[in-house]
Amino acid sequence: MSRWGQARVEVLAHHQEIKDELARGVPVKQVYDVLLKSGRVTVTYNGFRRQVQSIRDDLLRAPVAAPETSSVIVRPTERSNPPEGKPKSGFVFDPTSKIEDFF
User: Fold this and answer.
1) Is residue 103 one of the residues assigned to a domain?
2) N or C: which end of the chain has fewer CB within 10 A?
C-alpha cells in the first residue's frame, strides 16, 4: 500500500517525461506500464491517472502551433457573389407564419 500523496510525488518526479510522451500521442496506460515495469512508479493506475489528468489538461489548453504556410498561397473562394440571371433554387426562408403550418 502506498503512502498518501505518493502518486503525486511520483508523477511530479517524471513530469517532463510524461508530458513529452503524452504530447507525442502515447496513451496514459502505455506511459504507466513503461514506468511501472522500470520501477519508477509504484502506485495504482487510477492514482497515476488522476495525477496525470492535470498534465493532459495543460496539453489540451496549450495552443497548437500552426504549420508554416509561407510557400502555400491560400485564395478565398469566389462564392460570395451568386451568378447573375438564374435565381437560386432550393429552400427560401419565409419569416411569416401561416395558419397551415400549425395544423
Assistant:
1) no
2) C
State the residue range of the domain holding 56.
6-61
Closest CA to 50 of 95, 5, 1: 5
Give the Cα separation of 55 and 100 in Å (integer).
Answer: 57
Q: Total structural domains in the chain? A: 1
Q: What is the pTM for the complete model shown?
A: 0.56
The length of the chain, given as a count of residues: 103
45 within 8 A of 32, measured Cβ to Cβ: yes
Neighbours of 8 (CB within 10 A): 15
3-state secondary structure of 34: helix
CA distance 46 to 27: 14
